[in-house]
Structures are given as structure tokens and as C-alpha cells.
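Appendix B. Raw example, untouched.
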Amino acid sequence: DYTYDAYMEHLETPSQFNGYVLNQDSLALYNIEVHIWGNVELQDEEYMYINMYTFSDSAGYFQIDMPNGSFGSDLHHSSDYFGSDNFNFELEDNTVSHDFILIEVTSSISGYVYDAETGEPLYLDDAYVTVKVYEKDENGNYNNYVGSDYVYEYENGSYNLALPDGCFQARFSKSSSNELPYLELTHDFCVLAENYVFDAYLIVDDCVG
């Protein structure tokens, strides 16, 4: 029988990463997993890739002692919230603090996608149908991507996207290598704790081809 004794190297942790996990109303969120990954600085300009995890406490606070290096971080959470962006940071015998904000899902948009001429539902068959939603920013532009969904045949051409409260733009598109593509359809809407319903009717782009 083959025998192997493994000796694990202990990593020094002279730095620290800490902060809070809060909702959009600055209320603490408990037991949210903070995922950290990156390259640890070793001796002789060598690096080692690691994954680390910690959790927020009842006050929403998290704290973890860490080795020096370059890292990224994000949150693992339930579908009741929209995740915050990744946070990248450097550690060199110092402390970095960052607060993560999760936005509660309180609304949604759903409906069906049809061919405007025939009235037939559009499925994901030889082509693909996508629904992308963008949030309205402080300048009145829709540049903040929120999420997307695909239209599938087994869902009878329907789509459904969970959303926070706010104002958004839905963009519907379908293209195919075997037929003329459809014109993109955009629809602006606002929701406040509601399930908003919108059926999209797409028009074939006759100018292509």
C-alpha cells in the first residue's frame, strides 16, 4: 500500500478584511457568506491561489484575518436579494474595510413574447430570444444591467425576472441564422412592490438580407 504523509504550510495572516453586509435601507443582514479569492504572496516572488469564506454576524459585520496578496470578493446569498458587484483589494500588512449592499427583491416583470404579425409565441428553437432589463440611473439613462431571461418552448414563450423596486427598461431581441432577425423592442416601466405584466410583440426586420 502506498503511504504519503502530507505537511500543510501555515500561511501568515498579518492583514485583515472587514466590513458590513447591509440591505438597501442600511439594515444588517445576518449569516450572508462573504467569498474571497486571490493570489497570496509567498517567498521568492511566488504566489498561491486560495479561496476563503466568512459570514456576517447578527450586526451584519464580518471580519477575517488574511495573508498579504491581491484578492477579489463577493457575496453568496439567497434569491431574495440582488448581489452587489465584486470588490477587489490589495493587502500588505494592512486592513481593508468594505460594506456590501444587497437589494431586496420585491417586484417582478413577466409576460409572453409573440410575433407581431402572426400572433404566434416565439420560442427558443432555431433562434434565441432574450429579455434583458436595465435600471434607470440618476441621469435618466438605462445603463445599469440588472438581469436577463430566455424564452423557452417548455415555458410556452413566457419570461419572468425578479426585480427590486424602481424604474427599468426591458429589451426584447430575437435573432436566427436561418431567418430574418427581429427588431429589438424596448419597454420602459416602473414597479413598486408589484408583479408587472408586459407581453412583447416583435416585428421582423425586413431591411436585413
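End of appendix B.
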